[in-house]
Amino acid sequence: MYLDEERRKREGAMRGLKRKAMEDDLEALRKKKVVLTEVCTSLQKDADELAEKAENKAGTLMAQMITKSNTLRRRHKEKCLELKNVETELQQKGNELKLMQY
Predict the structure, then answer these.
(1) How far apart are CA 77 and CA 44, in angstroms?
(2) pLDDT of res. 69
(3) What residues have CB less than 8 Å from 55, skipping those under 6 apart?
(4) Neighbour count for residue 59 (Cβ, 10 Å)
């Protein structure tokens, strides 16, 4: 009886540690999501501003600004894809945590 009780205590403590680790992972993913959202917004805004400025320029300066704008748009696209992956992972881990609690 005593050994069974000790084993249950250890198993309960292990489940608690696993749940805590999962909660920490979720919090880190939430923070990463916020940062990526801000980065995506900023990249899009900067790309739009460069494209607008390029409309008023001519020649090589316009080409340089359009190139920079396109580079920012490419990075924006990459970061948005990364954001979608983080959101998917966040959803999966959230579901795992719900199942773990029951």
Answers:
(1) 9
(2) 95
(3) 62
(4) 7
Rounded to two decimals, the pTM is 0.79
CB 73 within 8 A of CB 47: yes
Confidence tier at 67 by pLDDT (50, 70, 90) = very high
- d(C-alpha 55, C-alpha 12), whole Å: 65
Tokens of 29: 């993913």
Beta carbons of 71 and 43 less than 8 angstroms apart: no
Helices (H), 2-58: 2-55
Q: Which two tokens stand for residue 102?
A: 């029951």
> What is the distance, to the nearest Å, from the Cα of residue 4 to the centroid of all Cα atoms in its chain?
43
Give which of 42, 34, 41, 21 is closest to 86, Cα–Cα: 34
